[in-house]
Amino acid sequence: MVFMQSYCEANSSISHTWVDEGISPCFYFTLVPTILLTIAFFLGTIHFIFYQKYGTAMEPKFIPRSRLYGFQQAISILLLVQSLGGMVWRAASGGELPGYVVLYGCFSVGGWVWAIAVLRVERRRVLVMDRTRGHSAALLLFWAVAFSAENLAFVSWYSPHWWWSLETIQQQVQFALWLMRYMGTGLLFFIGLKAPGLPRRPYMLLINEDERDVENSGQSLLGRTEDNPSTWHGFRRKVRLLVPYMWPRNNIILQLLVIFCLGLLGVERAINVFVPIFYKNIVNELTDGSSWRTLATTVCLYVLLKFLQGGGAGASGFVSNMRSFLWIRVQQYTNRVVQVRLFSHLHSLSLRWHLGRKTGDVLRSIDRGTSSINSLLSYIVFSIFPTIADIVISIIYFITYFNAWFGLIIFVCMALYLTLTIIITEWRAKYRRDMNLQDNNAKTKAVDSLLNFETVKYYNAENYEVGRFEDAILKYQESEWKTQASLAFLNQTQNLIIGSGLLAGSLLCAYFVTEGRFQVGDFVLFGTYIIQLYTPLNWFGTYYRMIQNSFIDMESMFKLFEEDEEVKDEVNAGNLLYKLGKLEFENVYFSYTNGKEILNDVSFTVLPGQTLALVGPSGSGKSTIVRLIFRFYDVQGGCIRIDGQDISKVKQVSLRAHIGVVPQDTVLFNDTIQNNIRYGRISASDQEVEEAAIAADIHDKIMTFPEGYDTQVGERGLKLSGGEKQRVAIARTILKAPQIILLDEATSALDTQTERNIQASLAKVCSNRTTVVVAHRLSTIIGADQILVISDGRIAERGRHDELLLKGGLYADMWMNQQQAQDSDSSSESESKDRKSEKLQPPSTSSGDHGH
């Protein structure tokens, strides 16, 4: 017959917490379920009230389907059943049934029932004001405490009252139940950090995106926004992107430096162990009256180790300084490679992306991203890993040379510290991300305003621009305050945990010293070691935050790396074999966006050395044809050939080497005029640059400047007039000496006389070269071999100037309108001159009007 004799087992009391080198089972199985039930009941009740009062039921379409969520539920139910089953098995096995077994079974069942209920509520309801994702703190804390409690069993490894020996069937069953609890609670905690059954993004964001137009959803500083509530989202992908920059390939010296630095890192860990031990030996030798020679040797060794270690945790020691010094080259390699590859990647992106970019955002993303890579590698390799190693070594050391209580104190403090640090830091990540967004907005407004300085002045909008910038700064400071306030809260939490652990360990060690079980040196050893350990642990939170901030700062840079190249060379693409310069468009279709065709079935041929002119109203597709020839975009249908070769099958570099372009809007580098012209061919001599300037009819104008060819043109060439910039662009193209020339309204910004001079120069340059001209003034293309009239993306008319006039179609109408406008301008100009001459003539007088 099974009966309950007492609450604890025979010869045991709940007041005896430590029995035979282990925790008393009665104490353990009373404390653990009580804490779990308390957390589940009180926090769970608060959770239920808040979700029922302030929450709303989620729409089924927003609830993710997840097998891991079902796995969570299954594990929770299994742990509930094993709690009840363990009690039933103990009762059915015969013999004594202690009261703590019944309490453990009942309280554990109650706790897991509440946990399952909270899990189901979070699955179906949501707090609409909650901007974060993931499980509530109540559920995460319950799983964390449950998992930590099962780890406490290791402290009783040598106790005969536990099941580790596995000698009896009862011990084997208890071990199996403990193994089930250990694995179950561990899985629940780590799966809970991912929260598979809950939406990956805040519920309000999902609702807003669902109501938003699909075409406008997902815009960000780089062309799309996506909310990554967790910094560790896509961690593997980020690490894979970083790995090539961590290991210096093809550089044996840097590789040896990396290995040597890692070796120094291991030396630091060993030194951190021996410094407190030698300090303890000094104290013991002083109290025991050891010989001077022995004491002096110990002191010298201690000072040597302290010199190597530095300030407490290798902060400024010889080994640490040496490692930091040797790591500089590796760090510079990483920084250089990342910046160069990113800069190269940006230049490889399509014109479409560059037309839609925000320059201020991109520059800030590059700046923050590249600087954060160095700190990320340093924190992970030289801070996080060493700190974790120090924690593991300290736990093993204290359990081995002191007793399990000290290992338990350190383990509990570390577990609580790391868990709360991760949870709070993840919670405050949204503030850091919002601060970055507001920072980008402020810098973007400043850059845009300065780039459009003239427009601001034209409309007296200085106060408006300053006000916009101030509003952006205020929003940034509001986000910054939230970031700093949450950081202060995290620091206070960490200090509380560290202080509590230091107090508990110091009191216990002092008690053992007074009992004569420890020496005074052991107390010194504990204090020295624990302070030495808490120093990097205190920085661990900072390291974690900095790593998280680095990942957040790099998110925008990673998005830049992820931008696909729209125009790519094929794998086996060859060089363009230029022969004569025959250009062909065959049934070309093209559109910038789906549903709006810019070119529709365009076909034409330009024979070698001929000039093709493209005319038509604005937006008809003339400039698009020029961009397609230069392969800024790939066509959606049809084919473009040069000398019979499809330009999409050849390398872009070889194609563009044979083509010279004078664009409609010329933007110059903030450099000298000479260097801007030399950009057409970097290797050109000064004499060749001047010859190109003479051909472009700008040499004489340049010589009137005080600094001549060394004149700075300013940001985007703003110090030059529109005509001067255009002539610099023409000189640049003349210097390149391409076989195919594309002129996109190259003389649109020039006066009539300069235009005639430039036309004569261009005629010489374009002779015997295939030329495509986009023209607005029809008088400039009278001598073209072929004229195409583009209208609504189609070729409406084609032929020479005289032929098109005889047809009396669109070209003839355009010619007539321009002639009338020119005649009107000429008559207006002559009338103005007549009025001016009349005003300059003296008034006529008669002889009778003269007086004597």
UniProtKB/TrEMBL annotation:
<feature type="domain" description="ABC transporter">
    <location>
        <begin position="583"/>
        <end position="817"/>
    </location>
</feature>
<dbReference type="InterPro" id="IPR027417">
    <property type="entry name" value="P-loop_NTPase"/>
</dbReference>
<feature type="compositionally biased region" description="Basic and acidic residues">
    <location>
        <begin position="830"/>
        <end position="839"/>
    </location>
</feature>
<feature type="domain" description="ABC transmembrane type-1">
    <location>
        <begin position="259"/>
        <end position="549"/>
    </location>
</feature>
<keyword id="KW-0547">Nucleotide-binding</keyword>
<feature type="region of interest" description="Disordered">
    <location>
        <begin position="816"/>
        <end position="852"/>
    </location>
</feature>
<dbReference type="GO" id="GO:0015439">
    <property type="term" value="F:ABC-type heme transporter activity"/>
</dbReference>
<feature type="transmembrane region" description="Helical">
    <location>
        <begin position="405"/>
        <end position="425"/>
    </location>
</feature>
<keyword id="KW-0967">Endosome</keyword>
<feature type="transmembrane region" description="Helical">
    <location>
        <begin position="376"/>
        <end position="399"/>
    </location>
</feature>
<keyword id="KW-0813">Transport</keyword>
<feature type="transmembrane region" description="Helical">
    <location>
        <begin position="139"/>
        <end position="158"/>
    </location>
</feature>
<keyword id="KW-0067">ATP-binding</keyword>
<dbReference type="GO" id="GO:0032585">
    <property type="term" value="C:multivesicular body membrane"/>
</dbReference>
<dbReference type="GO" id="GO:0005886">
    <property type="term" value="C:plasma membrane"/>
</dbReference>
<comment type="similarity">
    <text>Belongs to the ABC transporter superfamily. ABCB family. Heavy Metal importer (TC 3.A.1.210) subfamily.</text>
</comment>
<dbReference type="GO" id="GO:0016887">
    <property type="term" value="F:ATP hydrolysis activity"/>
</dbReference>
<feature type="transmembrane region" description="Helical">
    <location>
        <begin position="295"/>
        <end position="319"/>
    </location>
</feature>
<dbReference type="Pfam" id="PF16185">
    <property type="entry name" value="MTABC_N"/>
</dbReference>
<keyword id="KW-0496">Mitochondrion</keyword>
<keyword id="KW-1015">Disulfide bond</keyword>
<keyword id="KW-1278">Translocase</keyword>
<comment type="subunit">
    <text>Homodimer.</text>
</comment>
<dbReference type="GO" id="GO:0005524">
    <property type="term" value="F:ATP binding"/>
</dbReference>
<dbReference type="InterPro" id="IPR039421">
    <property type="entry name" value="Type_1_exporter"/>
</dbReference>
<keyword id="KW-0458">Lysosome</keyword>
<feature type="transmembrane region" description="Helical">
    <location>
        <begin position="71"/>
        <end position="89"/>
    </location>
</feature>
<dbReference type="Pfam" id="PF00005">
    <property type="entry name" value="ABC_tran"/>
</dbReference>
<dbReference type="GO" id="GO:0020037">
    <property type="term" value="F:heme binding"/>
</dbReference>
<feature type="transmembrane region" description="Helical">
    <location>
        <begin position="27"/>
        <end position="50"/>
    </location>
</feature>
<dbReference type="GO" id="GO:0005576">
    <property type="term" value="C:extracellular region"/>
</dbReference>
<dbReference type="InterPro" id="IPR036640">
    <property type="entry name" value="ABC1_TM_sf"/>
</dbReference>
<protein>
    <recommendedName>
        <fullName>ATP-binding cassette sub-family B member 6</fullName>
        <ecNumber>7.6.2.5</ecNumber>
    </recommendedName>
</protein>
<dbReference type="InterPro" id="IPR003439">
    <property type="entry name" value="ABC_transporter-like_ATP-bd"/>
</dbReference>
<dbReference type="InterPro" id="IPR032410">
    <property type="entry name" value="ABCB6_N"/>
</dbReference>
<feature type="compositionally biased region" description="Polar residues">
    <location>
        <begin position="842"/>
        <end position="852"/>
    </location>
</feature>
<keyword id="KW-0964">Secreted</keyword>
<dbReference type="GO" id="GO:0033162">
    <property type="term" value="C:melanosome membrane"/>
</dbReference>
<dbReference type="GO" id="GO:0005765">
    <property type="term" value="C:lysosomal membrane"/>
</dbReference>
<dbReference type="Pfam" id="PF00664">
    <property type="entry name" value="ABC_membrane"/>
</dbReference>
<feature type="transmembrane region" description="Helical">
    <location>
        <begin position="101"/>
        <end position="119"/>
    </location>
</feature>
<feature type="transmembrane region" description="Helical">
    <location>
        <begin position="496"/>
        <end position="514"/>
    </location>
</feature>
